[in-house]
Every structure is written in C-alpha cells, then in structure tokens.
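Hello forum,

I keep getting stuck at the same step: I have a sequence, I want structure tokens, and every attempt I make locally crashes halfway through. Rather than fight my setup again tonight, could one of you with a working pipeline run this one for me? It's a single chain of 140 residues.
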Amino acid sequence: MKEFKKFISKGNVMDMAVGLILATYFGAIVKSLVNDVIMPPVGQLMGGVDFSQLKIVLKPAVAEAANTAAQAEVAIRYGIFINSIITFIIVAFAVFMVVKSYNKMKEKMEKKEAAAPAAPPAPSKEEQLLTEIRDLLKKD
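Reply #2:
Ran it on my machine without issues. Output:
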C-alpha cells in the first residue's frame, strides 16, 4: 500500500490524469466539430447527403404484428463510420502538432543545457586526502 501511495503521489500520475480528462473532452469537442460543423457543409456539397444517415440495410425493421414482436432494422451504418474516421484524423493531427511542439521545446532545452559550460568535476577522495596531507605538511 505504501508503494501505491508513493506512486500515486508523484506528479507524473496527476499530470497523466489531467491529460486523460482533457483528452476525453477534447475528443467530444472534435466529434461535435465533425458531426455538427464539418459534415453538414460537406454533405450539402455532395447533393444534400446526411452522412450520419448513410447505411446499407441488410434487413428492414418489422413492425409489431398481432402475435409477433417488433424487430429492429439490421444495417451497416457506414456514414457514422466515415464521421468517426474524420474525427480520428483531426484528433491524430492535433496530437501530432502537440508532440511536435513538445519535441521542439525539449530540443531547445537540451541545446541550452549543452551550450552551458559544465562545472568542473569535484576532486576524488584520493585528491582530497592528498590535499589535506599537503596542507598538514605545510603547517609543520
């Protein structure tokens, strides 16, 4: 349990949780963008097609009769699939741009660190002991 508390209290886990929440809502925004903003004009340009209604009906719906239950329509809804593909492409492009920006920023930080002169290494234990011995001998 202690190990779990240590893990969960790290900043990276909290950052990841915040990123996951933001990604979920970003996905919802992009889905709305595709379904409500992009696809209606595209459908209009293609002759008034509503992509969300595009489907291939394999078995039509059967209404409820006297002694039979109603059966739902069986259809391949490829219009919704097309919307999902467009949503994926937009999300993938946005993630690509974020990662690209992050990599550029990281590269600049690494260049700055490389350009800064490194501090000289601390003397080894042997050198420290020899320096102490030398200083003691000078005092005598």
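Residues 78-115 form the longest helix (38 residues). If your local run keeps crashing, start a new thread with the error log.
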